[in-house]
Amino acid sequence: MSFELLTSSGYARRGTLTTKTSKIQTPVFMPVGTYGTVKGLTPDQLHDIGFEIILGNAFHLFQRPGLETIKKFSGLHKFMGWNKSILTDSGGFQIWSLKELRKISEEGVEFKSPLDGSKIFMSPEDSINTQLILNSDIVMAFDECTNYPSSLNEAEESMNLTHRWTKRSVDYFNKNKNGHLLFGIVQGGMHNELRLKSLEFMNSMKLDGIALGGLSVGETKEEKTKVLKFLAPHLQIDKPHYVMGIGTPEEIVEGVRYGIDMFDCVMPTRNARNGFLYTSKGILKIRNSEHKNSTKPIDENCDSYTNRNFSRAYLHHLDKCNEILASTLMSIHNLSYFYKLMSDIRKSLEENKFEEFLDSFYDMRSLNKPKI
User: Fold this and answer.
1) Considering the domain boundaries, does residue 122 fall inside one?
2) Which residues are catalytic?
3) EC number(s) for this protein (predicted)?
4) Full domain range(s) for residue 50
5) Backbone angles phi, psi at 64, to 5 degrees
6) Which of 203, 346, 354, 360 has the largest CB neighbor count within 10 A?
């Protein structure tokens, strides 16, 4: 298991991340499979697009189907029929998203189950143990996802709790790691001094990778970019960098620009199910009446299965009829767009043409490239 940096352009990097299951080309986008499935798609369809890693959620899989079921399959890979890498979220995001259903203590978090109201307690040790039973290739340390907005004192208190939980996560993981990789999560809200302090702490933990958390919780794109720009020169060169929950094409491109190697987001599949399709020129809304009789593909610059075989009119028709196939075909398209975006970024880095890629990317959307 290793990360190899192949080339770079400014802070942007091209590399490979090797896990116990597969080799991942970076920068990489990871489709989200919260419950052990990327909604509407089979593992074969994900393979055909080209994905090498997906994301699952330890908290939700702990509830359903439960660890006893997963143990019978020796982990999530065999349970869901996926033979490439899996990264699992620790449950830290649920501490933020289920704030009305949880109580935080030094020991961990007590949740009221969103399914049946029963009590669930998760400590850092429980989170790591759950992820090891899931047989995740990349395990995330337990953290508290800091609220937005947060005062300096609130963000520091939250960050310090994350640091204490990270230390416990590392101690438990090191006794049981068996080929898995462990990433720590940098917190600190929108406060640069705290972000740097948190990054320095995570570096001291000798982790396999560094993630940036708390950047999809309501802040503006400008605030998000400022954090990435500030941290870029301080990120360890020999470790993969992962920003959690970020997923518009513009955010991904700017993330790569500031040294990020890994991304995940539910947007491609969620937007597909709601008729919002990504194209090289921006979002296409398939539900608009103008597409009812259109013989055009979604995007002439995309070679996805959906794009090669089906018209806008057909997808408009399926969506209007609430056919399940609409969600599948449009999810294939959106994920294919994201896969191609990452492939194009990697190619531009290999050819030392990343700045030209940025110019073309923003020109196609009639947007101004943000200044560094």
Assistant:
1) yes
2) 89, 264
3) 2.4.2.29
4) 2-264
5) -140, 125
6) 354
Q: Which of 241, 264, 287 is the last residue of a domain?
A: 264
pTM for the structure as a whole: 0.97
User: What type of residue sits at position 196?
Assistant: L
Q: pLDDT (tens digit, 9 = 90+) per residue, 44-53?
A: 999 999 999 9
Distances (CA, A) of 217 to 97, 157, 213, 336: 9, 18, 9, 26
- 263 marked as binding residue: no
What span, in angstroms and rounded, lies between the C-alpha atoms of 310 and 307? 6
State the Cα–Cα distance between residues 198 and 195, nearest whole angstrom: 5
Q: Which of 216, 235, 264 is the last residue before a domain boundary? A: 264
Does one domain contain both 37 and 167?
Answer: yes
Domain membership flag for residue 372: no
Residues 28 and 172 in one domain: yes
Residues contacting 126, CB < 8 A, separation 6+: 108
For residue 192, give the H/E element and its range. Answer: helix 192-204
209 is a domain residue = yes
Note the pLDDT tens digit of each residue in 225-248. 999 999 999 999 999 999 999 989
Q: Is there a binding annotation on residue 93? A: yes
Answer yes or no: is 92 a known binding residue. Answer: yes
Question: Cβ atoms within 10 A of the Cβ of 275, count?
Answer: 20
